[in-house]
Amino acid sequence: MCLPNGCPVNVSPNDLSAGTVLCIIFFICVSTYFVVGILYKKAVESASGIDLLPHTSFWTSLPGLIKDGYLFFISPCLGDRRVKTSKIIKSPLEMVKRVENP
Fold this sequence. Notes:
Blueprint: H1 18-43, H2 56-78, H3 92-100
């Protein structure tokens, strides 16, 4: 039901939006993932230090993956200022040529 000026009547300013609920669920799931993963690695695998993190190789490579994704996304905008990729092997044939002619 609406009032004559168009404002809804039954809206409470303390209601949570769908986005807020999704953020709360997301952070609860991430927290649970880390807590359960750390407890499992500590109890079952007797890990310590950084090895306690579940999927350690993924989390340690994530900053580099984010950087690579950013550079891939922004590279059309960089033009001639982009990082030179001359040392990157683009095909298996280039690898064979570099091995034969160092």
